[in-house]
Design a protein that fits this description.
Layout (H helix, E strand, L loop, with lengths): L6 E6 L5 H10 L5 E7 L3 H10 L4 E2 L2 H6 L5 E4 L6 H10 L3 E4 L7 H13 L4 E3 L7 H12 L5 E9 L17 H4 L1 H12 L3 E9 L10 E8 L4 E7 L9 E5 L2 E6 L2 E7 L27 E7 L8 H11 L7 H16 L7 H8 L4
Parallel strand pairs: 1-2, 1-4, 2-3, 4-5, 5-6, 7-10
Antiparallel strand pairs: 7-11, 8-9, 9-10, 11-12, 12-13, 13-14
Length: about 350
């Protein structure tokens, strides 16, 4: 077997995402990726990176992009900078891997997509939680048909924290909508199974000490009639199931690493029933004992994926990356529509000044 040629990665932003997540993940895929450069405006982070990797480390993203050894620019900077940094790298013909959120608005997302479709480099949006084991297992159970036709689902991520970092500030692109939101909205649109026909949203500030929302509800109704609700909260003192899936023949919950299922035995044929307009007896309808099957399962999907391997296959072999740009832009449209309708909509003048972008 021919030896694989690792992709040379330049990591822009050496903080919680770049250093704390991307670097450890890339270490596990050293036959496919090689950390070739780093970049951060903070000197202490550059020193930390340089101590671990004997490769160039830059203060300016322009210098990393100009490095001929870098094939893939991995953008893990603050959210308001994602758009400018991705556009810069795409214009230089580099491949770009970008942390969520891909940008801040639908307009920015469409402009990124348009440039990516003309650039020799590919744009990869890091909706990595599409490959979480619990989500993969949920999709497998739905596809099996044991729940019947899924008509409604609720996806939740709940906690309580008086959070005080930059991700609680509107001018820094903060708020749960752009933090957990891209991941769980991506799950929701995957489970919706049809274009969004209707949307409702509500954003609140409960416990965080910044000025961005830390609690949100988004309801999506698909053209197929299916309804998916997303609830993300930093102000909920008690947990909820991460998934509640309702089908015409059963239901499923996922909480604490465990799947609970209750569904009608598909091997049993139910007797035919008709509605009776006559005077009812003492019961609400005719009593019936349904052949329920109840199961408790560990989370263990039959097939798993790794987003870095998908990036590698796309660059080296031209394989289809599973998160399309159309999907990423549709995700951003939902997030932006929810944000712009709320009291937490960004103030363009301040955001542009803070991120260094022109208005």
């Amino acid at each position: 077997m021919a030896k694989r040629k690792p992709i040379a990665v330049g990591i822009v932003g050496l903080g919680r995402a770049g250093w704390g997540m991307h670097v450890p993940e890339l270490r596990k895929w050293e036959d496919e990726f090689r950390i070739a450069a780093g970049c951060d405006i903070a000197e202490d982070r550059r020193k930390r990176f340089a101590a671990a990797y004997p490769v160039p480390v830059y203060e300016r993203i322009e210098d990393l992009i100009a490095d001929p050894s870098v094939e893939l620019v991995d953008i893990a900077t603050r959210s308001p900078d994602h758009f400018a940094h991705a556009m810069m790298a795409l214009r230089a013909g580099k491949h770009v891997n970008i942390e969520k959120p891909m940008c801040l608005t639908t307009s920015e997302a469409k402009r990124m997509q348009a440039l990516a479709e003309k650039s020799p480099g590919n744009l990869y949006v890091r909706h990595n939680r599409r490959f979480d084991p619990d989500f993969l297992h949920v999709k497998e159970i739905i596809a099996s048909g044991v729940l019947g036709d899924v008509y409604e689902a609720k996806l939740s991520r709940m906690g309580y924290a008086r959070r005080d970092d930059w991700q609680t500030l509107v001018d820094c692109g903060g708020g749960q909508l752009l933090n957990w939101g891209p991941h769980i909205v991506d799950h929701a649109t995957q489970l919706l199974g049809a274009p969004v026909a209707e949307m409702w949203s509500d954003l609140k500030l409960i416990a965080a000490v910044g000025d961005a929302e830390d609690h949100l509800v988004i309801k999506l109704k698909g053209a197929n009639g299916r309804v998916i609700e997303v609830e993300i909260s930093g102000g909920s003192a008690l947990p909820q199931p991460e998934y509640v899936i309702l089908g015409t023949k059963g239901a499923m919950t996922v909480q604490g690493g465990e799947i609970r299922l209750k569904y009608i035995d598909p091997k049993k044929k139910l007797p035919k029933r008709t509605a009776n307009a006559g005077n009812p007896g003492e019961h609400f309808g005719t009593p019936e004992k349904l052949p329920w099957i109840e199961q408790t399962l560990p989370i263990k999907p039959s097939k798993t994926y790794n987003i870095w391997h998908e990036v590698y296959r796309s660059i080296r072999f031209g394989s289809r990356y599973p998160i399309t740009l159309d999907e990423a832009v549709a995700n951003m449209k939902i997030l932006w529509d929810a944000k712009r309708r709320s009291e937490f909509a960004p103030r363009p003048e301040k955001a542009a000044k803070k991120s260094g972008r022109k208005k």
